[in-house]
Amino acid sequence: MSEQLKFIVEQLNKEPFKKNFNLVMFDSLEPIQLLQILNDVLAEIDPKQSIDIREEMPEQTVKRMTSLLGMLKYKLQDNMSDSFQQGLVTGSKSVIHPILYWLLQRVPDLKKRAYLARFLVKLEVPAEFLHDDIVSDTYHQYEELVEGFKMYHKECEQLRTSGFSTAEIRRDISAMEEEKDQLIKRVERLKKRVESVSNHQWMLKQARQLRMEKEREESLAQQKQQQKNQLFQAEQRVLRSQQQLKDMRQSAADANPESLTRRLEEEIKINTYMVTEKLPKELESLRRTVQYLQKVASEPAMGQANIRELEDRIKDVDSQINLLIEKKMLRNDPIDDKLTLYRQQASIISRKKESKAEELQGAREALATAEKEMKQRHSQSSPEEEVIRGDELKRLVAKLRSKGTAYKKKRQELSELNAEYGVLQRTEEILRQKHEAVQEKLQAVEDEKGISGYSNTQEELERVSAIKTELDEKKGRTLDDMSEMVKRLNSLIVEKKSALAPIIKELRSLRQRREELSQEYGEKKTQYESCAAGLESNRSQLEKEVKALREEMAQKENQYHYINSMSEVKILRSCCSNGYRNLELYMKNIAEQELLGKKLREEQKMVKENHGANMEQMKMWRDLEQLMECKARCFIKAQNQGSVGHVIQDEAKDMLVL
Hints:
Helix content is about 85%, strand content about 0%. By secondary structure, the protein is mainly α. Among the domains are: about 1-120, Actin-binding Protein, T-fimbrin, domain 1 (Orthogonal Bundle), CATH 1.10.418.70; about 470-570.
């Protein structure tokens, strides 16, 4: 019950319910709340059930829910059938919990069933209303629509499960539209080419008539072939009917009351033997086999001690049987010799009867199979099927004649066997009577000698001996099968070991090689990481220097342009305001500024001259970094492909070159 509640709570917390319950909260719900939850689940299956049960009468709620549950094939429990409606009214947990558990287990299937029920559940119209023609016609149309809905729904389900997608259909449609456009363009081109020919309308008309006549010729040829086939099949049916009539006349000529009575008596005797003797023996044998197998299966697993104990018991029983047989042979009673002869004859007769009965049963089964196959072929044959003719028909007729001859021969053999069976049955009856008389005489002799029951004991010993022999044979076969199975398993294990030996040897060498390569890979990886770290630090340092030089160069250029412009402005201002009083001072400043500008230009020139070399060196460091990354990738790839040694040699060469 706890598992049931746990499952209900898990499903109600999922989509589309999202109730956020736990076990305690769900178990403590009021009856009206529990009934509302049941109604919500039913509304998810059938949207028409979406109702607030507080706005509905209890009787209507019970009627609505029971009708929907009946439509969904919900089975009531036997101990709840009487109180089901009362439990729905009161919101009983013992009624609603099983319903929720059953519904939440199969929501998708129940949705489909509810959807189909809207269209497939037929309306019940009273019989007296169906006598009206309008009502009857409308009801027939309604039934036809229901059948049509079944067919369309089935086709829709087949299309859904057939694997076709809308994308594939759209692609096919677009491809067909393109082909259509191409054909239209081709037809237009052909029309333009034909319009230049004189009398093209008359020629098109003649071509159209020619095409129609060819189609008509093909249709007539097909009709002619069909009529030929129908004529041939009619001839074959006539021949078969004539043959059947001939066989019936022959059977009627041979069918006198005495032969029919004798045949029926033979069939009755055969059926009586099958029912009273053969089939009960087979059934009893099967029952004994089943009991023996059940006994073997019910026993616990036997150890070597139990097997030895059973073998010792079997040896003791064998020794007792041998002693009894020796006593019997020493006694050498003439009455027993006669009984032995009779028993042998009776056993021979019974074996013949059983073999003939089995042959008869096999022949009957073969006849029934042939008749069933013939009926299936007749039911599956149609007038349009391809017919047999010519040499194949002749071969078929010859084969049928040979089979008819063989059938007559077998029928004659069967009649002879039936006659022999009658003789054997009569002989068996006579021998049985003699055996009973001898048994009575033997019983009287045993009573006189005071050894009553000796013959029964002997027969019981013979039966036990036969059972023991049969068990020995079964045990021997079982042991042979087990030994053969053990031999096959041992040979299979040896083959698998021999097949796996070179693979294991190769695997060991590969494992050792893998360890060596892993160690070497670790060393090379450490070297690579240290080298890459050094290169990265040098590259970053060079980048910083280049950046600093660029910034310094830009700063110097700005300073130069600023000083140059300011000097020019000062010269102009001084010339305007003071004239040429401070000309010498400004000329001195100009000379100093020119020296400073010359110095800055030299520094700029030096920076520009070294800029190309610095950039080239920076580019070389970047190429070196890319080369090292490429070698690392090649190393990892070569490690996976088993050629690490070659990659290491190439890497050493490249390092020497660098």
